[in-house]
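Weekly modeling sync, notes
Attendees: S.R. (lead), two postdocs, one rotation student

Agenda item 3: backlog of single-chain predictions. S.R. asked that every request posted to the team notebook include the full sequence so nobody has to chase files. The rotation student volunteered to paste the first one in as an example of the format we agreed on. Action items at the bottom.

Example entry:
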Amino acid sequence: MKKKDIYIFLICLLICFLPGIIGSLFTTPAIQQGWYQGLKKPILTPPNYVFAPVWTIIYVILAFVLYFLIKKAGKLVYIKVALILFGLQLILNGLWSYIFFGLKSPFGALFVIILLWFLIILCMREFKIISNRASWLLIPYFLWITYAGYLNIAIYLLNK
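Predicted structure, as returned to the notebook:
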């Protein structure tokens, strides 16, 4: 990897970790102050310590996705659409934490998950044209969001 590529990848990492950093501003207080602890949760809910490492892996994967898209940016005319879609899914990613933990609204967060789910599918389709690797790398993210959707729906239904 060239020095320039390392800088590009580091910027991609920063961009992709922003939703998690911003989201933690809402997640941490909700967990520490007991709101989340007091919720009834489905049987397949992992312990809290699982979420940070999984999200770290997901954000690193997303950084590679963004890196692969950027590396093709000068060669393709329609890269702007792909980058906009990528940015939108990052915004929704961070918005989910705000709505679920900040506003304490599992119901509202469910809508964000549904939008995010469809946006990831759209990204996978669009990215395939640009970078097959970028498209395939979204599969773990899609699966994790699907699992998060299950948890979100179950928490909503168990705590109505």
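Discussion: group reviewed the output briefly. Residues 63 and 106 are 28 Å apart (CA to CA).
Action items: rotation student to repeat for the remaining queue; S.R. to check formatting next week.
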